[in-house]
User: Which sequence fits this backbone?
């Protein structure tokens, strides 16, 4: 009898199995009086053209997404320290840290990596990039990528120890080759990668691009990532080497701040982890009171994970239906879904939520729906903005 | 120069009774001056030539470095004072009025201020390093 009850329990109440996760820790200083406005554009472009595409590509390999997107007044050394030390990835997880903001090398000498300002100017509070990488690496995730886009110029401060996937004006789309390329880069390697945008003694500058003013490094990074994803066999060694040449060439030709990135790649080729079977997950009711940015991000991450399962063609339609019911439960009856363009500049479509969720079952070319903003009414969502990624 | 700094500020620089230069140290949130010295007439002519170079007033390109100046030059005329601070690594300089408010921040377009500072402070290791190993 106990066995029957146990079996029934597992059949009726599917539990949340820990799927492989890609953790994004992005710290972008959007409030600085000199580069804050540029960084708002950098953040938008980074998510539109790098983060969302990578998430979409590796979703097929069973990866869910945990985004810790820190910007505006939330950026601080303490926040960085707290999130880096508290992150607890599983062994099959991927961790990507990306910082955009001011930085310095400090006094000449020491290792070649810069220290990050994290939206403040007190030299005693600087966060060494190498410390972040060592902390994240020690958590033994499958792949750890740490990127610091900042100056590496010298001063008297003591050193502390411690794609443009083609211009696309509607939804993002990835070709089969691009999906395989991004999957190879992010799930086909085990190890760690540390990159910073400038060599010791150099400053990192900005460049005019078709996407607006961006820091030179991020502009070159998304272009090189696009080129790598189109390779038959992309490698981190080629990507970092090409990125270095590209930043060096572009910064010399187009800016008064020539700089050359520094990188350390320590990865081995490996087969992708076995995809864990996904089961419907519970979606928590949003809180009715004023939420913090972290609450909003948690809600969006949870919706993103639930939408991944609703789109997963490897599980039965009935299970996907259960998931859609669970998602629908947190929306108001008249809620709408606004599908945004890749760059988030305009609304491609506005559909009643109930219709949109039912279409997820039949849209075979849709590979990823990324929630980007939720508007609430009481403890229900009345409007959700999403970005879609299609297989070309 | 007067397009960036007001005429009254330019007047203080042009007619200063006393011009001093100092090295700057940053500790926590405070900047302290050390090795302050009044410029002699030949040093003053050299520094004034560099400070008023039109190329130093032309641009302020965005850059991802912290402004930690190493050199400060102060011009005093009667009760008025203008202070110019130079970050010779980041290649930025700023001007401050008597109240200490920043009036502008601009690009350092060449290494003449670095060379002049190295002549005045020949034993400063950071200035020496910047001169020997300039950013490529």
Assistant:
């Amino acid at each position: 009898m106990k066995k029957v009850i146990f079996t029934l329990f597992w059949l009726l109440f599917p539990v949340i199995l820990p799927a492989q996760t890609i953790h994004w820790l992005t710290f972008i200083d959007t409030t600085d009086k000199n580069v804050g406005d540029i960084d708002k554009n950098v953040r938008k472009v980074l998510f539109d053209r790098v983060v969302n595409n990578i998430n979409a590509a590796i979703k097929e390999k069973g990866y869910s997404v945990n985004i810790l997107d820190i910007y505006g007044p939330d950026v601080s050394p303490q926040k960085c320290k707290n999130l880096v030390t508290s992150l607890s990835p599983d062994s099959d997880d991927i961790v990507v840290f990306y910082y955009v903001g001011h930085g310095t090398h400090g006094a000449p000498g020491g290792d070649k990596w810069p220290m990050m300002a994290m939206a403040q100017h007190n030299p005693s509070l600087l966060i060494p990039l190498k410390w972040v990488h060592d902390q994240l690496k020690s958590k033994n995730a499958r792949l750890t990528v740490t990127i610091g886009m900042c100056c590496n110029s010298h001063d008297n401060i003591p050193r502390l120890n411690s794609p443009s996937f083609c211009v696309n004006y509607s939804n993002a789309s990835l070709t089969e080759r691009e999906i395989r390329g991004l999957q190879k880069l992010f799930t086909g390697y085990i190890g760690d990668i540390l990159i910073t945008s400038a060599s010791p003694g150099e400053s990192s500058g900005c460049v005019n691009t078709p996407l607006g003013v961006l820091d030179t490094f991020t502009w070159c990074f998304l272009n090189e990532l696009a080129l790598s994803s189109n390779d038959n066999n992309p490698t981190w060694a080629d990507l970092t080497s090409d990125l270095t040449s590209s930043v060096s060439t572009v910064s010399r030709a187009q800016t008064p701040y020539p700089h050359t990135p520094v990188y350390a790649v320590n990865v081995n080729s490996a087969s992708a982890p076995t995809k864990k079977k996904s089961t419907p997950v519970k979606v928590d009711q949003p809180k009715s009171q004023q939420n913090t940015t972290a609450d909003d991000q948690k809600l969006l991450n949870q919706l993103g994970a639930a939408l991944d399962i609703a789109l997963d063609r490897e599980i039965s339609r009935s299970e996907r239906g259960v998931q859609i019911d669970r998602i629908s439960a947190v929306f108001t009856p008249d809620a709408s879904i606004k599908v945004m363009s890749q760059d988030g500049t305009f609304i491609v479509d506005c559909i009643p939520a109930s219709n949109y969720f039912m279409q997820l079952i039949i849209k075979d070319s849709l590979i990823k729906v990324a929630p980007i903003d939720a508007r609430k009414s009481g403890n229900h969502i009345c409007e959700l903005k999403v970005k879609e990624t299609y297989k070309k | 120069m007067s397009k960036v700094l007001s005429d009254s500020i330019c007047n203080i620089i042009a007619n200063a009774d006393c011009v001093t230069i100092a090295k700057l140290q940053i500790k926590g949130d405070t900047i302290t001056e050390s090795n302050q010295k009044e410029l002699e007439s030949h040093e003053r002519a050299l520094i004034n030539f560099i400070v008023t170079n039109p190329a130093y007033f032309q641009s302020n390109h965005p850059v991802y470095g912290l402004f930690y100046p190493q050199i400060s030059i102060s011009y005093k005329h009667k009760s008025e004072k203008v202070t110019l601070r130079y970050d010779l690594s980041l290649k930025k300089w700023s001007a401050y009025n008597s109240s200490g408010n920043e009036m502008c921040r601009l690009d350092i377009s060449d290494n003449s201020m670095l060379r002049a500072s190295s002549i005045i402070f020949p034993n400063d290791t950071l200035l020496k390093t910047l001169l020997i190993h300039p950013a490529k």
